[in-house]
Design brief:
The chain is mostly helical. The protein is built from 19 helices and six strands. Bound molecules: s-citryldethia Coenzyme A. S-citryldethia Coenzyme A binds at residues 240, 243, 274-276, 278, 302, 310-318, 367, 369, 372-374.
Length: 439
């Protein structure tokens, strides 16, 4: 439904009165399909000469979207109207990629065609190989991801015209297809092993695992349980509405920047420990806590406003209930550890004990701080053999489809314009320049 239709359909508005002038302003209200209504403040500055003020965008809708819906109070996550639990149970990552990019579930023929397209875009231009050699071997793989993904526009210039729908879709396919190869090669480079090339006879998740863990000297048999778990982990990280990294991609794209540069910007934003870097931070935190008897001491640190220690993997800007992805990951953690014959994994036991104690503590209960997607993912990834430094890389790999779907939606939105927030200026005003010898 277009914005005008929404506006006309509701014909609702809120009235704001400026008590300093006594003037009142009617601001139109828009309704979505579900979820909070929005007050359309686009005419606000023109009509009032004032800006709205919302650092961190805690109460601000930045766009209209039909890709992902989150109900934070109820702990609901849907992609194109399908619940994440159903997609995890019945779908696979390739089908979810098609759904996010196109809005509908594919039929069998369309799904097969999409999978084939992605498979045949999974190789990298051979010269990109050299780019890795410019990094130190101990470079954080996220630094390599930012560099290599940003450089893709120099190799795939034929899919950078953002006004060409065909090129937009090719760029989308290329990014989804090449992220596993780029990510696996970042890992191989860090351990001094040769790059393994994608294979066309493997599924997306199987291919990624073989590029990560196989070597040229012997055949590699993909563990089907790990491949299934990998596929589910990709689904759970695919998209999440207007989070920090997605908003970064949209803002970068609003200037007309090419899609590869926009995704590189999203990877940079995701790297932060408050966002996608939290999965790595959770494992480091559990290592620092060391044993279950130390949990109360660390919970006190997390509650101390003077201490900047946070309980990583807990809390969320939108979820004020259990993150539905954390629930699926918690059950997957048990399946993967059982499949690997890892009984009583101490980190998982400590994480569950930490969750139990925190969810009984008033500080966390009052602030509605629950485990989020990052709390359990790291435990599974570590058990699967991934080094901690690769955790956020896997998040970026999976989130690429969400970023590029949101980027496409923005470019194709006729009302989109360059993002240019304003500010509340509190600095000096109109000072006289003081010559150097007078200071
Ligand atoms: C992701 O947005 C998304 O959708 C992101 C994501 C996605 O899929 O894209 O879901 C992925 O980023 C998940 C979040 C991963 N980050 C972490 O696990 C890091 C730890 N969490 C916190 O840093 C925090 O909870 C945030 C950043 C996630 C959310 O912060 P907000 O919404 O800005 O909340 P806030 O900082 O204003 O906190 C409200 C209160 C504060 O206390 P008071 O000032 O009211 O006394 O809760 C406290 C905070 O101090 N608080 C925590 C806490 N998180 C919030 N206290 C201890 N430990 C925590 N983890």
């Amino acid at each position: 439904m277009s914005s005008d239709a929404k506006e006309a359909a509701t014909n609702e508005y809120v009235t704001m009165t400026d008590h300093s002038t006594g003037k009142s302003y009617d601001l139109p209200v828009m309704n979505g399909t579900v979820g909070p209504k929005v007050v359309d403040v686009r005419p606000f500055y023109r009509d009032t000469g004032m800006f709205t003020y919302d650092p961190g965008f805690t109460s601000t809708g930045s766009c209209e979207s039909s890709i992902t819906y989150i109900d934070g109070e109820a702990g609901i996550l849907m992609h194109r109207g399908y619940r994440i639990e159903d997609l995890c149970e019945h779908s696979d990552f390739m089908e979810v990629c098609y759904l996010l990019l196109n809005g509908e579930l594919p039929d069998a023929a369309t799904k097969k065609e999409f999978e084939t397209t992605i498979t045949y875009h999974s190789m990298l231009h051979e010269q990109l190989n050299n780019l890795y050699r410019g990094f130190r071997r101990d470079a954080h793989p996220m630094a390599i991801m930012v560099g290599v993904v940003g450089a893709l526009s120099a190799f795939y210039h034929d899919s950078t015209d953002i006004n060409d729908p065909e090129q937009r879709m090719i760029a989308s396919h290329r990014l989804v297809a090449k992220m596993p190869t780029i990510a696996a090669w970042a890992y191989k480079y860090s351990i001094g092993q040769p790059f393994m090339y994608p294979r066309n006879d493997m599924s997306y998740a199987e291919n990624f695992l073989q590029m990560m863990f196989s070597v040229p000297c012997e055949d590699y048999v993909v563990n089907s349980v790990l491949a299934a778990a990998m596929d589910k982990i990709f689904i759970l990280h695919a998209d999440h509405e207007q989070n920090a990294s997605t908003s970064t991609v949209r803002l970068a794209g609003s200037s007309g920047a090419n899609p590869f540069a926009c995704i590189a910007a999203g990877i940079s934003s995701l790297w932060g420990p408050s966002h996608g870097g939290a999965n790595e931070a959770v494992l480091n935190m559990l290592g620092e806590i060391g044993s279950a008897d130390k949990i109360p001491e660390y919970l006190e640190k997390a509650k101390d406003p003077q201490d900047n220690f946070r309980l990583m993997g807990f809390g969320h800007r939108v979820y004020k209930n259990y993150d539905p992805r954390a629930k699926v990951l918690q059950s997957h953690a048990h399946n993967v550890l059982d499949a690997l014959g890892i009984r009583d994994e101490p980190l998982l036991k400590m994480a569950m004990e930490l969750e139990k104690i925190a969810l009984e503590d008033d500080y966390f209960v009052q602030r509605k701080l629950f485990p989020n997607v990052d709390f359990y993912s790291g435990i599974i990834l570590r058990a699967m053999g991934f080094p901690v430094s690769m955790f956020t890389v896997l998040f970026a790999l999976a989130r690429t489809v969400g970023w590029i779907a949101q980027w496409k939606e923005m470019i194709e939105d006729p009302s989109q314009k360059i993002g240019r927030p304003r500010q509340l200026y509190t600095g000096e005003y109109d000072r006289e320049y003081v010559p150097l010898d007078k200071r």
